[in-house]
Give the backbone structure.
Amino acid sequence: MPLTNEQKKQYKSIGHHLKPVLIVSENGLTEGVQAELERALNDHELIKVQLRITERDDRCALTDELCRIGGCELVQSIGKMALIYRKNPKVNKQLSNVHRFQS
């Protein structure tokens, strides 16, 4: 289910204060990157990803592939940063960025 504009607005304000937990370089989506993506989304739900790729079209394609592989949704993409979200049905409220910052 796609995010509503209200949800995206809320997640953007939360994401503004986050540091990137995943960095993707020219090597692309290796097994290690995919494993870390899965772990980070399970723990935090909302994460910031840094894409260290110079070409804009390549970054867009990589972001789309990242969302497809992770089963997540792109909230915002600015320059070399992407903010992505995937709801966790068994959320840990101490780790989840969404629950920690909603209070």
Observations:
- The longest strand covers residues 46-51.
- Helices lie at 5-15, 31-44, 56-70, 97-102.
- The first helix runs from residue 5 to 15.
- The chain is about 45% helix and 20% strand.
